[in-house]
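Hmm, how's this folded?
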Amino acid sequence: MALQRIKQLSSHLSGSSKGLSSLQQKHPDDVVITMAIRSPLTKAKKGALKDTSTDELMLEMFKLAIVHSKVDPSAVGDICVGTVLTPNPVYHARGASLAAGFPETVPVQVVNRFCSSGLMATTVIANQIRTGQIEIGLAVGVESMSQNPDNGGPPQAGGIGANAAARDCLQPMGWTSENVAEDYNISREIMDDFSAKSYQRAEHAEKSGYFAREIVPFTVFEKDPATGARRKVVVEKDDGIRYGTTKETLSKIRAAFPQWGKSRTTGGNASQITDGAAAIMMMSRRKAEELGLPILGKHISTAVAGVPPRVMGIGPVFAIRMVLKNSGLTQDDVDLYEINEAFASQYVYSIQELGLDPEKVNVNGGAIAFGHPLGCTGVRQIVTGLNELHRRKGKVLVTSMCIGTGMGAAGVFLRE
């Protein structure tokens, strides 16, 4: 049975079967999404989730996934969690899933490919379904950057550090942003301009209620600053969006990395350090129809590309080209792009190099406006993209991000 499905997949993604009209055809073995939700994204060390540990974030996300998916927890064949900075993550993921109500028979795995980890978790589950290993799977992305700050990479052995590209893998991400800005002549002015649009779009989307359709209120505990006692709170909205942001206000922010390049990267034109979680339930179309669940979209393909570590931010350019080619799509077929705004330098470069219409990219803002919880982002972008795709009645979503150490990832999803 698995071999038969692999042959069917090869047929779907090759030759005359390529193209949007072909991808829109419905097959029982399609990998579909029946639930897509996320937590509010909140500022690390300052926001409403700052006192919530990683396993508590996972616990609440698992609980809400059970409620909102309307799937019997025992029917889930596997759970894959994307997380980056969490020490000993499998302990947390397995424990949280059991405490949330998944039975002992439901296994858990963890994946870490830095900023793409959420997309990788989604891809792992999609591939397991596609090849017949499981019928139903849950993909989760989670990161507490309050509890687990990014302290950079470990020391390298001498034989590795002697290689220039290998040494670059350990360099700070701000250095890579300045390299992109200098190598590809991305000015501070255009970086601030695009960043201001991210804030303005996010503010408009939030005030218009667009995010309310994807955010599920998170019940967590916070510490009373006076007594240290923990009290229960409900978090319902993102807290990183700075209302009234303009290019002029951003231009007044001092350089974050004056020691590198032309010092164009600032705290206003780079992604915020953030806490958050997101989840999508996936299954075969056959199973979704059997259970009578709504189908939000389907996963078509994922691609990962390698690029020089010193300019890791250019990764989306190569990954997007690759995933569109693999899917038999053109850029004109795509209705919306979600490209992670790690830094404005790489975000602007990706749009310009690919020749994308900025009005199709991050139409409700991005990580500059409301944050980049590393392991969460890949799933969060799918949730946000599908939500907006449904609102606009579009067909094709491409989600993408650069990846530390020099990679890029991209995925294609179709709205039902």
About this structure: The first helix runs from residue 2 to 12. The first strand starts at residue 31 and ends at 38. Confidence is low (pLDDT under 50) at residues 12-16.
